[in-house]
Description:
This protein is mostly helical. The chain is 74% helix and 0% strand. The two termini are 27 Å apart.
Amino acid sequence: MTVGTDSRDTEARIPRRTLEHFTARSLVGLIMVVVAGIAFGVLLALVRFRFGPLYDLDHGVAESVNGYVADHEGLLDVIRFVTGLGGGLKVWVVSLAVAVLLIRRRARLAVFVIVSGLGALALEPTIKLLVGRLRPVVDVPVAHAPGNSFPSGHSLGSFVVYGSLLLVFLPAVSKRWRPLVITAVATLVTVIGLSRIALGVHFVSDVLAGWLLGAAWLGITLYAFRLWRREEHRREPTLTEGLEPEAADDLEPAPAESKVLPHPWVETAEILVGWVLVLGALFGFGIWASYHADGTVLAALDTGVPRWFAEHRTPMLDGWSHVASKAGDTHTILAVSLVFCTLVVARWRQWRPILFLALVMVGELTLFLASAAAVDRPRPDVPHLDQNLPTAAFPSGHIAATLCLWTTIALIVLARTDRWWRWLTVVAAVVMPLVVTTSRFYRGMHHPSDLMGAMLLTALWIGLLYVIVRPNAEAVVADAGDDLQHQNRGVRRFARDAA
């Protein structure tokens, strides 16, 4: 009887301790949310009634910082880059994070990110409209921003977006590195806010208000998520464990991948030697096509094609060619590469294809710059629609980058899925280079032999890296075992939850 009583007492104590544990943590979190909300309300009142000391601090800092930043162009470039991390980039970051979470079948975490982001997006313009505070007026404007000033949308949005992503993905970070990651995110949010002051588009109180409102809103969404877990009788983790510690297996990028490169020093030496050989081939063809091909069909094409396009220009086609040409510029190529790499890691949980794409694009850029400088070919003898380009004509960097990117994407995707949409990557690998090539010819920037140089670069460089890196070496295994791996992760999660 005694044993049975002790057993019942133990079973009664466990839920009671769990409830007390949850209540204590929830109370602390609720207090933090209330404190942040009250602090924001007080700051709002001080701004509305133009409290003297705060008014002097805001305007004094704005003037002094503006005077210093305006005289340092290099520092200004860094500040503009930092402030960009808190601007429209947040939308892309959130979209990618949600895509990753949905691919990893963590819909609840995706909902948390979406709700947090949408709440911040709605709070900023609403409060700005209610307060109606004008932006700072400085002697030397170095940046311009539309709308009202209070609170700082960059500060509010970065706090909520990067804070919510930190809470979501923290379980995938090793415990040893979590303090460093938390510090890095806190530093990022801080410097984004300070950059708005440095650019003279926000007062100190605007940035503080953005942080306080962001903390309050993120605290509310976090509290709601914990209540959601409580309804499912799950334990309440500490903030340093993230939102769902049991999601660590699903959030880890590539837990089961073998060594990316079996013999890294050997492969590195092979890649360097191959790079030199590809550069030699480009240089040889470029010198011949540029200066020694007179009287050949290629020379006739190099002269006739740019002139034909120049004779058929119209204002409408000028605009379309500008848009099409942008599809092959550095910013577009980098953006597509980052998005694709993120989705590859999320879906196939391997770093090898990412390394392959990175080496392809870095090699393309360096080969293009080196060969362009060595050959130094003039642009076609027609009016140019793009002015002051820093490189020579051969080979076409836009076309080479487009060919390398979309060909690499097609090679990776085709080996990893048998779904119908894989053929869309093949279509893109054909259509995108054609679009960019036509636009570059139309704008008078390249000869047909520049296109041939880009094709030569793509074929030699991708072929070399494909043999050395073998990006699809584990593709069949990864694809075949995907469902089984997911089932195993589900069993492990069920076991942890039951325990």
